[in-house]
């Protein structure tokens, strides 16, 4: 492990903090890996346990480390923070923060619209919609299950597109419908067995569940989506004024 910096006047806890930060940035401490205990670090660097703890707490506050009760302290996975004051997609938000993103398409098929989807898209119940189910990854970790429905009559050519490497909104614009506005509902839920299996988390783990209606510039409803986001890796920001 990296040695302590020798700069005069720098508090010991800051030196411990920066050693751990360097180990994380350099990849010597991997995402999800347990770091040495406070006692081990204190003995290694000849400092008190309280000094080590203060350095660790700083990194927990920054989101670089997290604690699991009874198990220890671990290197955190990158957090996807969505700014919901602007309408952006998953890929735009993640790439702006330097996060490597990808998606795996689990299912693409034309299905009849059930009532909730039909009402959201302003089409008759049973009319054809394209169902696109995708598992989305941030830095190779599954973070979101994205379950999307779009009107088949508007977007039939999308069925022949490469959906894994292209944003759905970009494809919509290609076919004449530029995304402009969204209305969404957010809830905290337990993952449940099926979502947990797909994302790779415990069934009782928290998720941020989202339903979202997307409208084109001319007001046409173009997408209705159910999103299931890992609660430990996903957060949102909303600006408010009074």
Keywords:
elongated; two-stranded antiparallel ribbon; 242 residues; alpha+beta; Chorismate lyase; Arc Repressor Mutant, subunit A; single chain
Plain-language structure description:
By secondary structure, the protein is α+β, with helices and mostly antiparallel strands. It folds into 2 domains: 12-75, Arc Repressor Mutant, subunit A, CATH 1.10.10; 80-237, 3-Layer(aba) Sandwich (Chorismate lyase), CATH 3.40.1410.10. Helices cover 28% and strands 34% of the residues. It has 8 helices and 10 strands. It has helices at residues 12-25, 38-45, 49-62, 90-96, 115-121, 152-155, 168-174, 193-199; strands spanning 65-68, 72-75, 80-83, 101-112, 128-138, 141-151, 179-190, 206-216, 221-230, 234-237. Strands 4-5-6-9-8-7 form a 6-stranded antiparallel β-sheet. Strands 1-2 form a two-stranded antiparallel sheet. Helix 1 crosses helix 3 (49-62) and helix 2 packs across helix 3. It starts with 11 loop residues before the first helix and ends in a 5-residue tail after the last strand.
Major beta sheet, strand line-up: 4-5-6-9-8-7
Tell me, what is the CATH class of the largest domain? Alpha Beta
Main sheet, how many strands, which sense, barrel?
6 strands, antiparallel
Strand content: 25-35%
Report the count of strand segments: 10
- The 3D shape can be described as elongated
Helix content: 25-40%
Question: Could you give a short description of this structure?
Answer:
The protein has about 240 residues and is an alpha+beta fold. The chain has helices spanning about 10-25, 40-45, 50-60, 90-95, 115-120, 150-155, 170-175, 195-200; strands at about 65-70, 70-75, 80-85, 100-110, 130-140, 140-150, 180-190, 205-215, 220-230, 235.
């Amino acid at each position: 492990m990296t040695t302590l910096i020798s700069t005069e006047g720098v508090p010991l806890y800051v030196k411990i903090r920066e050693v751990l930060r360097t180990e994380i940035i350099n990849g010597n401490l991997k995402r999800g890996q347990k770091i040495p205990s406070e006692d081990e670090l204190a003995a290694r660097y000849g400092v008190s346990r309280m000094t080590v703890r203060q350095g660790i707490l700083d990194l927990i506050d920054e989101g670089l480390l997290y604690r699991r009760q009874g198990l220890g302290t671990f290197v955190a996975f990158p957090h996807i923070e969505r700014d919901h004051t602007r309408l952006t997609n998953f890929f735009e938000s993640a790439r702006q923060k330097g996060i490597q993103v990808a998606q795996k398409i689990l299912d693409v098929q034309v299905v009849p619209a059930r009532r909730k989807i039909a009402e959201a898209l302003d089409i008759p119940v049973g009319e054809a919609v394209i169902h696109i189910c995708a598992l989305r990854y941030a830095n190779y970790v599954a973070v979101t299950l994205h379950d999307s429905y779009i009107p088949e009559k508007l977007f039939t050519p999308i069925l022949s597109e490469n959906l894994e490497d292209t944003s759905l909104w970009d494809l919509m614009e290609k076919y004449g419908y530029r995304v402009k506005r969204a209305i969404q509902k957010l809830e905290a839920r337990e993952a449940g067995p099926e979502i947990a299996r797909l994302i790779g988390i415990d069934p009782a783990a928290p998720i941020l569940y989202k339903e979202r209606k997307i409208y084109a510039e001319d007001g046409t409803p173009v997408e209705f989506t159910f999103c299931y986001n890992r609660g430990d890796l996903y957060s949102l920001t909303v600006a408010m004024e009074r």
